[in-house]
Structure formats: structure tokens, C-alpha cells
What we know:
The chain has 18 helices and no strands. It is mainly alpha-helical.
Amino acid sequence: MSRVSFKEINRLAIPAIIAGIAEPLISLTDIAIIGNVDRDPVEALAAAGLVGSFLSAIIWIVAQTKTSISALVSQHLGANRLHAVKTLVPQAIFFNFLLSLFIYVVTAYFAGAIFRAYNAQGLVLNYAADYYQIRALGYPLTLVTFALFGVFRGLQNTLWAMKCSLTGAFLNVGLDYLLVYGIDGYLPAMHLQGAAIASVISQAVMLVMALYFFFSKTPFGLRLSTRINPQMRGLLLMSANLFVRTAALNFAIYLANAYATGYGKNYIAAQSILMNIWLFFSFFIDGYANAGNAISGRLLGAKDYKRLWNLSIDISKYSIIIAITLIGICSLFYDEIGRLFTKEESVLVLFSSVFWMVLFMQPVNAVAFMFDGIFKGLGEAKYLRNVLLFATFLGFTPVLLLGDYFGMKLYAIWFAFFVWMIIRSSALVIKFRRKYLKKEA
């Protein structure tokens, strides 16, 4: 059989889509609810959007060990050598925990300085710092959970992560309404702080569920060996390359938000909605990339290059269909989508004028994210790092600066993102064809 079946791909991809959108869905829920509060809605929306983007940036960077774990577990599964990573898994999870504690301490202490670097001032700055210091408590919870999800994906199972993520997302929605608005006579309205507390509680529940699946369904445990697993060096090297890559990715997001904040509070409010929708779409499309990540690692371990080549074609096709479907749905409800997040007309005008650009780039995003997932499964972290550095500093940044010079504002930001994604997708497609087309034959 020369192809991975549609059923097998979707068995991994569909749960991965649902699991992947949980974290951005938590941020989107916060933004939607906060954007409709009675007190300082524009400032609160801007603060929630800035923090949501920054949290996603940090989590993307440090959660790359999840991808590294997934790649190594899947490769060893394909080679029938899971025993070789039995001590690696708890060591990697413990590393994630220590790293998350360090990040929490540093960023929570410097929260004010961090958001001043985004050009936040006054109420926006105060709200962002207060909201972040609570949300940041979720770092250890989220990063350990993500490490466990990486183990599940490496074992070709994304269903367990989906169950954890769905529970966390639904719980967050209910707690958001309860804690942000309060209950007259019983529970005071807690505004942004309530949204942050709701998120941390949801993340804790997700971790407890993930630990249950880890102990009851996988061959691994959390007992630490005094001897460092020989694969640990490879995992840390792959993770380091992915850290640098993701840091470059998030530099682009930081630059976009910093420029939008500099244009005024209405601009950063609109940019916050656009950015978090873009991130939501990214995680949504990323479900097939996660399937590609898991399956490609297994096929590489088994040296099955023909099925690997066909996998890239099939998953590209499915990802583009998902992207076109999202475009169609959002086009039908173009104006209504903005009103889910705010009632401020000045913000809605800015949002509507640029939202089409976010939609237009989705098929290009689909190809880039899909090949990202496959290259991660193949352990090609160095190439992914180099592509992102090139796309960010020789593509995104000069386009943004040029557009800003000509006064294009939000249009400059999203045109820069479009150029960024074209470079990323093109470089990955060309590399994959050159390396694996001959092997497939």
C-alpha cells in the first residue's frame, strides 16, 4: 500500500485540530467577553489581545520540546525501538517544567516593562500587566500538558489530547462568564482578573486529565533516571533550533503588535482581534500538520519514502480544503464576526477594512503549516530555523517598515505577514521536493 489512508490521517488530524484550537480558543473567549464589558471596553480589549498574543508567542517558543518529543517517539515507534526513549520521556517533561517555572518568574516580574515594549500606556498597560501576571501562572500547567500531548502524538494518538483540550475550552467559557460578570449578590464581577483566573483553572484541569491518560494508556512513567538518556542531546538540539525559529516567528508578531499599538488604541484593539483570529486559524489548520508530524516521523523510521511523498500531497490537499472552508464561512459572516468581539464602531471599521487580507492568505498558510509539521517529524529543525530567520528579517521586517513609511498602518502589517508566509511555504515545498522526490522513486 503506497498511501497513508484518508481514515488514518483523519484519525490523527481531526482530534489534533480540536486539541490545537483549545489554547487560542481560551484567548479568543477572553477577548470576546472582555470586549463587551461595560468598563473601559476598548482598553480592556487591547490589553487582553496584547497578552493573548504574547502568551501564544511564549508558549510557541518553549513548547517546541513537544514537537521534538513527538518526532523522536514516532521515529522510534516506526523502528520498533520505543524502549530506547523510555527514560527520555520523563526527563523531557521535567525539563519543560523547570523551563516554564523560570519563564514565569522572569516574565511576571517584568510584566510592566514587557508591555511597555509593545507601546502600551495608561489603562492598557495597567490592565495588560495585571491580567498577564495571573495568566502566567498557567505556564507550568500548559507546558507540562503540551509535553504529554507530544508523547501522545508520537504514539499516533491525538484523541487523548482532544478530550483534555475540549474539557478545558468548555470549562473556560463557563468560568469566564461567571468570573468576569459575576453573580449579583453572590459573586463580584472580576473584569480582566476573572478571565485570567478562569484560564488558569481550565489549564489545571487539562493537566490532570493528561496525566491520567499518560499513566493509564502509555508505556511511559515519570520516574527520573540518574543517567541522562543518549537521545536527550538530540532532543535539546532539535528543541534549540525550534526555539530560535519560533523566537523569530514571534519577533514578527511582536513587531506587528508594537506598530499597531503606536497607531492608537483603536488600531491595537482591531489588530488584537485580527491577530487572535489568525492564530486561531493557524492552530485549526495545524491539525493536519500535527498528523503529518506524527506520521512522517514513523515513516522515516521505517524508511518508507514512497508513502512519505504521497503523505505530503494528501495532507496539503486536505489542509487547503480546510482553509477554503474557513474563508467561505468567514465571508458569509464577515461583519458579524467583528461584532462578536466589540461594539465600538471605530474598531469595527478598522477590523472590516483588513480582515479580508487575513482570509486571503489562508491557503498559503495551510501549505506552510503542513510542511512545517512534516519537517518537524523528519527532524529537520535546522532548516526550519533558517527559513524562519530569512522570512522574518529579509521578508516580513523590510515590508512592514516600507509600508509604515508610506502610512499604510494595518495594511502594512498584514501585507508583511502575507509575504512572510509566501517565503515560508515556498522554501519548504522546494526543499522537500529536492530531498524526497528522488527517494520516493
